[in-house]
Amino acid sequence: MKILADENVARPIVDLLRKEGHEVEYIFDSARGSVDIDILERAHRAGALLLTDDKDFGELVVYHRHQSSGVILMRLEGLPWAERAEIILILQPHLCDKMGENEIQGGRDGSVSLNRGSAHVGGSSRRSAKALSPLL
Hints:
The chain is globular. The protein has helices at 11-19, 27-30, 36-46, 56-62, 81-98, 125-132, and strands at residues 2-5, 23-26, 49-52, 71-73, 103-106, 112-115, 119-121. Helices cover 42% and strands 19% of the residues. The two termini are 17 Å apart.
């Protein structure tokens, strides 16, 4: 999977995604300080999912109707980097098929939400991601 990781994504998450065989461009290394619209356009031109912790990208896509190949908003503050990466890895097989249909969000408590039909699973990241898999 092609992923463009925003500069606010922790390096351990980027490293783990790369180790798992994903093609990941990391804005922190390639274009640090870029404005959001340029990052969104870069991801779209590359056909890559944008992985970010910045809610502004949702506004650009939803309210301003900018084109996108998909945006994954990671709102997982307070969780260790390894658990954040685990959530992405568990969900990633479903992301290519579902990005156009659903919005996947993670919460501060380790919960994961699938917004289309209002599915929400709470608890630890491992339990939440595994419980969410049948919904995808």
